[in-house]
Design goal:
This protein is an alpha+beta fold. About 20% of the residues lie in helices and about 30% in strands. The longest helix is centred in the middle third of the chain and has 18 residues, at about 45-65.
């Protein structure tokens, strides 16, 4: 196993790695919509936060020598399932067919009051 870390995504806020590479796969931890340059959420709502979460994951994959075209599975956690359509609109702009497999869940709360968190599994 190899830990992956980049300054182009927020640092881990707990005892975990931004990503782990193992057996040709990249397992990226859930990405909150924190702008690594400011340490804050972007202005706006679910669309802006979804975009930032995806940019963070993209930066981690790049550091690992992968990219969004090699993502095989994502998990999206939403603070409010009513945000699903707006999240999906932004999400779709980051991926092309064949789209990765995906699960999406509404959860009671996310760290720091985020509206979305996205994790990914990609091939190298």
């Amino acid at each position: 196993m190899k830990a992956i870390s980049t300054n182009n995504a927020p640092a881990a806020i707990g005892p975990y790695s931004q990503a782990i590479e193992a057996n040709g796969f990249i397992y990226a931890s859930g990405q909150l919509p924190i702008d690594p340059a400011t340490g804050a959420f972007p202005e706006g709502g679910i669309k802006e936060q979804t975009r930032q979460s995806l940019l963070n994951a993209q930066a981690i994959l790049k550091e690992a020598g992968s990219d969004l075209s090699k993502v095989v599975k994502t998990t999206v956690l939403l603070a409010d399932i009513a945000d699903f359509a707006a999240m999906n609109e932004v999400y779709a702009s980051f991926f092309a067919a064949p789209y990765p497999a995906r699960s999406a869940f509404a959860v009671r709360d996310l760290p720091k009051g985020a509206l979305v968190e996205i994790e990914m599994i990609a091939v190298k």
